[in-house]
Design brief:
The strands form 2 sheets. The chain has a 3-stranded antiparallel sheet with strand order 1-3-2. Strands 5-4-6 form a 3-stranded mixed sheet, with no helix packed on it. The longest helix has 13 residues. It is an alpha+beta fold and 148 residues long. The termini are close together. 20% of the residues are buried. It is 41% helix and 16% strand. Strand 4 and strand 5 form a beta hairpin.
Length: 148
């Protein structure tokens, strides 16, 4: 799952980065949001604190954290960049109606896919990672337990 604040500060230190108040505040917002764009983080922070931070600054922090491997990027079909705070292996459910993401934890399915890819490597390519995304729209039926 996502690193808590103390773990986040330790990860930054391992990467020779300072745990600035802005970085910690962005991470706090991401812990609450799960998947978010820079705009969403700024809106969340404005509603929670008196801290003023620009969308550009938040985007730069989110991008840097992604470049360092602490977050990952998700491009939505509306061409908006979302960031994911969850660093463990998981599946994404992308809702085409809301352009939102949810996490689906299914170790068995992920293991099956990894095993298949290991046996059937794409010729001429080295697999760096496997990213599973289910593109969906609400069915109107009961909701399953997922984490945003």
């Amino acid at each position: 799952m996502a690193p808590d604040i103390d773990q986040f500060k330790a990860l930054l230190k391992q990467k020779n980065l300072k745990a600035t108040p802005q970085r910690v505040a962005v991470h706090r917002a991401m812990l609450a949001l799960g998947h978010a764009s820079a705009d969403m983080v700024v809106d969340y922070m404005a509603a929670q604190t008196d801290a003023k931070i620009t969308v550009a600054s938040v985007y730069n922090i989110l991008s840097m954290l992604s470049d360092q491997g602490l977050y990952s990027r998700r491009m939505s079909s509306n061409s908006k960049m979302y960031f994911d705070v969850n660093s463990c292996k998981h599946i994404h459910i992308y809702d085409t109606t809301s352009n939102g993401y949810k996490d689906l934890m299914d170790d068995e399915f992920i293991s099956m896919v990894e095993s298949y890819v290991k046996k059937h490597k794409p010729r001429g390519y080295k697999v760096d990672s496997i990213d599973i995304q289910l593109v969906c729209r609400p069915s109107g039926r009961g909701k399953k337990s997922t984490r945003q």
